[in-house]
Amino acid sequence: MGKMGGSPSTRLLYIAGRGLQLVGMWMLLVDLFTAGPLGPSFNLFALGVGLFVAGWLLARGERRGPSGSSDQNETPSP
């Protein structure tokens, strides 16, 4: 997970993003496994994908520093 320093609100947003990812993935899996002969429900599938992507963006945004760069070690290109 890397370094998770910062304020409690930053941690809360990160955890909320991860929670949205879990809920979205759960909705996708339930929709796929309960699909009938016509396939999964488009509305539930789209909602699951939307929640997952929103959670990913929220967690990703909170992992970056104030300058917008990731806190992971990056080597500069020559």
Key structural traits:
62% helix; 78 residues; mainly alpha
* SS summary, helix count: 2
Order of helices and strands: HH
The total count of strands amounts to 0
Average pLDDT works out at 81
Strand content: under 5%
Give a quick account of the main beta sheet: strands, pairing sense, barrel closure.
Answer: none
Q: Give the CA-CA distance, first to last residue.
A: 28 Å
**Integer-rounded radius of gyration:** 17 Å
Low-confidence stretches: none
Q: Helix share of residues?
A: 55-70%
Q: Structural class, judged by helices and strands?
A: mainly alpha
Shape: elongated
Q: Can you tell me about this structure?
A:
With 78 residues, the protein is mainly α. The chain has two helices and no strands. α1 runs antiparallel to α2. The protein is elongated, with a radius of gyration of 17 Å. The longest helix has 26 residues, at 8-33. The chain has helices at 8-33, 42-63. It is 62% helix and 0% strand. The model has no long low-confidence stretch (mean pLDDT 81). It has a domain at 16-63.
List the helices and strands and how they pair.
Elements: H1 8-33, H2 42-63
A few lines on this structure:
The chain has helices at 8-33, 42-63. With 78 residues, the chain is mainly α.
